[in-house]
Amino acid sequence: MLFASTALAARIERADAWLMSDSATAAARRRPKTGAFATPLAGGFATFTAPGSPLNKVAGLGFAGPLDPGELDAVERAFAERGVPVQVELSCLADPAIGAFLTRRGYALVNFENVLGRRLPLEPPPSPPEGIEVTESPEPELATWLDVVVTGFASPDLQGVPSHETIPRDEHERVAADMAAVEGFVRYLARRGNALAGGASMRIFEGVAQLCGAATLPAHRRHGVQSTLLATRLEIASRAGCDVAVVTTQPGSKSQENVQKHGFELLYTRAILVRQP
């Protein structure tokens, strides 16, 4: 069993917060006039890339001391100036005082997301299904990878608790491209026979393998594509010396069901708290 200690949660939340920060920094480089920012806040980061972006959030709070009201004031003003709400993703293993403080400040609970993990290395690594090949996607294939991943995510399996966010395709493409520009962010494509079937990504940070999402095109679902993308990344992370792999899902979703079939365990839940501008 992988026990969800506060120390493990702090590592995972730090990895997630830095991924958000690095993605927002990449967005600022790619589109310098859009007001993108990444601001440290109580051990985590507040990030903004564009109105409607899922990267507009506060992540990683609650594991590095108290939340300073003055620093939060500045973050709230920055989001309000851009006309977007402040969204805080707060682990249930974080300092409970932060959740109470945000609630008194007018933040409303709108949803939850689950963080699942499994120990690494894999012993032994699983055998991939016949007819499916997963390869790293180089820079010249970026447009292809974006199209596969965004198309796959646009047709989700309708199971479990729905997300509170609806992301337009063009914004999803921008976000995926921003994340793809982050150092250490590796893209993968799956082919079934000669056809593109799915895509995924991974980033390794301080021994944590962040499985940053995988999508299978509708015509290729239920043929082992998702499982092969998952197994391939876990094997690569094992060889790289990671001791834990993590994935974030909607509660009760097909994605959660799939990763639990492959040895992932529910570690903790994040509450999603939102304050309107």
Number of helices: 7
How big a fraction of the residues is strand? Answer: 25-35%
Q: Rg, please?
A: 18 Å
**CATH-derived architecture of the largest domain:** 3-Layer(aba) Sandwich
Q: Would you count the extended β strands for me?
A: 11
Question: What is the succession of H and E elements?
Answer: HEEEHEHEEHHEEEHEHE
Give the overall shape, derived from the CA principal axes: globular
Helix/sheet category: alpha+beta
Mean pLDDT: 93
Amino- and carboxy-terminal Cα gap: 42 Å
Determine the CATH topology of the largest domain: Aminopeptidase
Poorly predicted residue ranges: none
Oligomer: single chain
Count up the domains: 2
CATH superfamily of the largest domain: Gcn5-related N-acetyltransferase (GNAT)
Residues in helices, as a percent range: 25-40%
The main pleated sheet reads as: 11 strands, mixed
Please describe what this structure looks like.
With 277 residues, this protein is of the alpha+beta class. The chain has two domains: 6-114 and 271-275, no CATH class; 132-267, Gcn5-related N-acetyltransferase (GNAT) (Aminopeptidase), CATH 3.40.630.30. The chain is built from seven helices and eleven strands. An eleven-stranded mixed beta sheet has the order 1-2-3-4-11-5-10-9-8-7-6, sandwiched between helices. A hairpin with a 2-residue loop joins β1 (37-41) and β2 (44-48). α1 (6-30) packs across α5 (169-180).
